[in-house]
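dumping this here so i dont lose it
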């Protein structure tokens, strides 16, 4: 096999593999799994009306923090009905994937 052909095959394999970060989250899977999150967490300056609070943007947030927060919502340690409802259906891998995706975005 020629060297350029081997390099081309190697690049194709590299780009075809899912983008997985060191903490085990799949960024591409997280992008898909986080679609329902984007309705609130991707809106610049979004505030919830009642009860009143600022909804944080998650782009650029640390992956471990997002996973920890999702686990706390799921267990009820963090009281927020909407977030508990969202987190309850998430597996540990889902949380890692979603957190990896948000961590991969630039903080804005």
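and the seq i came up w/
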């Amino acid at each position: 096999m020629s060297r350029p052909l081997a390099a081309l095959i190697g690049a194709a394999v590299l780009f075809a593999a899912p983008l997985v970060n060191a903490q085990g989250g799949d960024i591409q899977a997280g992008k898909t799994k986080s679609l329902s999150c984007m309705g609130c967490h991707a809106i610049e300056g979004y505030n919830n009306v009642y009860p009143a609070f600022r909804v944080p943007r998650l782009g650029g947030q640390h992956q471990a923090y997002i996973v920890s927060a999702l686990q706390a919502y799921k267990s009820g340690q963090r009281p927020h009905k909407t977030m508990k409802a969202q987190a309850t259906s998430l597996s540990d891998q889902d949380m890692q994937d979603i957190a990896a995706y948000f961590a991969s975005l630039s903080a804005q």
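The CA atoms of residues 25 and 69 lie 16 Å apart.
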